[in-house]
Amino acid sequence: MIIDTHAQLYTRKFIEQVKAGKITGLEKMGYASFFKGIVFDTIEDMDRARVDKSIVVAVDAETTRGFRVSNELVAEAVRLYPDRLIGFAGVDPHKGKIAVDELDYAVNELGLVGLKIIPHLIDLCPNDPLMYPVLDKVAELDIPVLFHTGTHFHTGCKLGFNRPEYIDDLAVDFPTVTFIMAHFGYPWFYEAMAVVQKNDNVYFNIAGWSPRYIPEPVVKHMNSLLSKKVLFGSDHPLLSRKKIIDEIRELSLKESTLDDLFEHNAFRMLSRGQKNFRE
Hints:
This protein has helices at 12-19, 42-49, 62-65, 71-80, 97-108, 119-122, 132-141, 165-173, 189-198, 216-222, 241-248, 255-271, and strands at residues 3-8, 53-57, 59-61, 67-69, 85-90, 115-117, 145-148, 179-182, 202-205, 230-231. By secondary structure, it is an alpha/beta fold. The chain has a single domain (3-271), classed as Metal-dependent hydrolases (TIM Barrel).
């Protein structure tokens, strides 16, 4: 089985904003060509790559960027493809109790099973006090939380919010919560690997990267010390899953590492206190 732990569901409005230049940066990477304007084309991409399941994420950065991919949209996608998609919620910590209540609703009413936060879009470090009421609710709901870490291509957003060291604070303060650091924290990947190695409750994914460009120290950690902590992710539609998987198989990873990367680690991550996820 292959499980993608990180993919997007871009709306038509988002695509239109990218094409109109209102959301800038992604076009510099040539990503705009992947935006077909079809929310559910991720299933076709999964089929081409023989990916069995994929996490799809909501995003809420309304107070700072006026941007949101709603929890309802993600829940509807999961409802249409319940055997293929797993939904993570998105809430904006700036909204205070509204965000906490929205997360409760997204999990208990909509059936989403995790949370996604993008610090540079909401102008908050992960360990900012505004984040803690949301993380208290995460701990209560017993769900994992996925944080964007490292570089990004959103013009006008500051990189410093995404330092991996902030996740160490959260891992210590919320020892029962599972944290995933997206994009292995580049360019601070040594820092990210140290946080993952130190904390049993922290994983990392390789989403959004063409594997041939993953730094060699990260590949070495994937294949040795952190083989039980690395997760496959695509960040589709930014990259096709087939391209990523083909390149992963060229990295000379051990078969046991590939098994952990594609399947076993995702099940461990999702089932760690996770009542709602079923194989």
